[in-house]
Amino acid sequence: xxxxxxxxxxxxxxxxxxxxxxxxxxxxxxxxxxxxxxxxxxxxxxxxxxxxxxxxxxxxxxxxxxxxxxxxxxxxxxxxxxxxxxxxxxxxxxxxxxxxxxxxxxxxxxxxxxxxxxxxxxxxxxxxxxxxxxxxxxxxxxxxxxxxxxxxxxxxxxxxxxxxxxxxxxxxxxxxxxxxxxxxxxxxxxxxxxxxxxxxxxxxxxxxxxxxxxxxxxxxxxxxxxxxxxxxxxxxxxxxxxxxxxxxxxxxxxxxxxxxxxxxxxxxxxxxxxxxxxxxxxxxxxxxxxxxxxxxxxxxxxxxxxxxxxxxxxxxxxxxxxxxxxxxxxxxxxxxxxxxxxxxxxxxxxxxxxxxxxxxxxxxxxxxxxxxxxxxxxxxxxxxxxxxxxxxxxxxxxxxxxxxxxxxxxxxxxxxxxxxxxxxxxxxxxxxxxxxxxxxxxxxxxxxxxxxxxxxx
Length: 457
Hints:
The chain has helices at 4-22, 26-32, 35-60, 70-82, 118-123, 126-141, 144-171, 174-180, 187-230, 234-247, 261-273, 276-308, 310-328, 335-347, 351-364, 369-381, 390-403, 407-419, 423-436, 442-456, and strands at 88-91, 102-105, 113-116. A 3-stranded mixed sheet has the order 1-3-2, with helices on both faces. Helix 1 crosses helix 3 (35-60) and helix 7 runs parallel beside helix 12. By secondary structure, the chain is mainly α. It folds into 4 domains: 1-63, no CATH class; 65-123, Metalloproteases ("zincins"), catalytic domain (Zincin-like), CATH 3.30.2010.10; 144-306, no CATH class; 331-456, Alpha Horseshoe (Serine Threonine Protein Phosphatase 5, Tetratricopeptide repeat), CATH 1.25.40.
């Protein structure tokens, strides 16, 4: 049952996505289908889970309320002294309640709970129990739970941004394309493998090192909170001694989210001698939070640039161009591939590259109406006068119209006549294009016709 609170949210999240996909809300489905929509949906779900999840976890763990009596009354009085409110105090059945530990969970006071194990109540003195509860209250008073959520949200943003960056780097790598053309031919499988490995690595680095470092320092700050409650940490120090004795763990055993027992005791001993260490550590926490906020702001700005700014467009263009050039050797005789390259260059106004690609496509298949039409349009309308060849545009467009009778090809032929100042032929061809056009497209073709008529006058 210990792992259920970790697994269950992901299961519920997946079910909710499936339900949304079934419902007849196309705009919502389209929004959630985007990267931004998916991230926003997950963040809303995460915040909802953070607020209301603790009540569900109590039921999953089968936690029982701490019975009325000495310890409940003592803990309640301690909470009042600290100005701490919670919805209840419960037994924590983790590892059968044999661990000497306590915990607090919940963002809001109506969904916040204190958890204690039976071993903690049985083996610690009342003063030591007070010190442990004060430590847990310290987490709430210092807003650690909210900060942990902030770190988790930061990871999602970081993953969203860094995934794009690493994929851009991969697409610039020859080794990546070797993999794509190697024994594993299914590109979707390779993409999934790379992305999964990437997520796992970033998860380990983020939580083991960045989040772990922050948690260790938050735990130290919560340890120091006992000084605000009692003026001394002696009961908490004796608690650590008992934990080391009963758990039979080394005092120096490292922990990713706690300092070792020796390090925790040494810090508290220093604070006993000089409480200025508490102030210094509080300042350290503030510096960490400021640095993290600045880092997340930088990540957010980078993500915005990658998805909506000039930097993202440049990177995407470089990636696509790299993919196209990498595929040249495998598609050297594929006229459709070269035509697609020409279209891509034309859309980005890289006219000379587009001309070369279209010519290559036509050298492989002269009866390619798409390449004929687009090269004709480029020759007739190019922004760079040096590259215009209106007579050649007419020849290409005529050949294309002989292969396919379509309004967009006739429009290109009309534009080519217009570029050659053959206004009569341009008007006649434009009329034919307007007659063939679909209702939704007629406005464009009629506008073209008016342009040609105006020039003739």
